[in-house]
Write a structure and sequence with these properties.
- The protein is α/β, with parallel strands linked by helices.
- The chain is built from 12 helices and 12 strands.
- It has helices at 2-21, 42-46, 49-57, 72-80, 99-105, 141-144, 147-150, 157-165, 187-202, 205-208, 248-258, 267-270, and strands spanning 31-37, 59-61, 64-65, 110-114, 126-127, 130-131, 153-155, 171-175, 211-217, 230-233, 240-242, 246-247.
- It is globular, with a radius of gyration of 19 Å.
- The relative contact order is 0.23.
Length: 279
């Protein structure tokens, strides 16, 4: 009888520990998929077929601004709440806390899927169509110097495998290569690729359950106000146009609010929140 009590206690403790360690469900969604595109003004992006479909079927933000030119600073701001001194597209090794620190404190999972990424914690500037400046996570010292963490940056070919295996993490950052993001090809090419890659996914109710697809751009075209296309698509989203003045920091703040992460104490802390777009 005493042995049975001990085994019962051990079993209870183990189950309790597993429950505490389980990933936390979000307020609005359990999975967020970010896909970023390049150098296009708002109206031009909105006119494309797939971007237009996402905007019409989800939330379309009509007054959304990037923070700087050129690209890299916006990627860093989206993931750390600050430009962190980034003024161009050169190599930066950034000693800063970031969204990954907040996610891991809550036992939430994350992964970066980068097209043409060679793996093995590669810190070089480019490889085929992959460029480091579009993958901010490898520039954070507390990720690039941590083997377990930088192993979460993988080639994008793993995305479809993880979907098939049901192991897609809570926070997904998908990095298209230079052609597919539109940098070397233009927004029409990027739109066509996006529709081919994600079109079947967004129509799959099982895949989209408790998931949002966040589509945004790093910056507007040259010589234009830094207004960018941004949409959020998912079954929990109330479709419509939203005119609130938002910025790249607002998307970081949405992650913090959804999973009760706290904040990084920078631009994310004072940014405008994404408005009530939820059903």
């Amino acid at each position: 009888m005493q042995l049975l009590k001990i085994l019962t206690f051990i079993s209870f403790v183990t189950v309790s520990q597993l429950t505490l360690a389980a990933p936390q469900s979000g307020k609005y969604f359990d999975h967020a998929i970010f896909v970023l595109f390049e150098n296009t003004n708002y109206s031009t992006a909105l006119a494309q077929p797939f971007f237009g479909k996402l905007a019409k079927s989800g939330s379309n933000f009509t007054n959304f601004s990037a923070l700087t030119h050129p690209s890299q600073g916006n990627y860093v701001a989206l993931t750390s709440g600050s430009l962190n001194g980034v003024k161009g597209d050169a190599q930066y090794d950034i000693d800063s806390t970031n969204i990954i620190d907040l996610l891991e404190k809550k036992n939430l999972t994350w992964k970066v899927y980068a097209e043409d990424y060679p793996g093995n914690c590669f810190t070089g500037m480019s490889s085929k169509g992959y460029v480091r400046r579009h993958n901010p996570f490898i520039s954070y010292i507390n990720i690039q110097k941590n083997l377990a963490r930088c192993a979460r940056i993988v080639n994008a070919s793993d995305f479809d495998k993880d979907v098939a295996n049901g192991t897609l993490p809570n926070y997904v950052f998908y990095v298209p290569n230079l052609k597919n993001c539109g940098h070397d090809t233009g927004v029409a090419y990027a739109d066509k690729w996006y529709g081919q890659k994600f079109g079947s996914y967004i129509s799959n109710s099982k895949f989209m359950e408790n998931t949002v697809l966040i589509s945004t751009f790093d910056e507007s075209g040259p010589g234009l106000r830094n207004q960018i296309y941004t949409s959020i698509f998912g079954p929990a989203v109330q479709a419509g146009n939203y005119s609130a003045s938002l910025s790249t920091y607002s998307l970081l703040k949405l992650m913090e609010e959804n999973w009760d992460l706290g904040d990084l104490g920078r631009g994310d802390a004072t940014a405008a929140s994404v408005p009530q777009i939820w059903k």
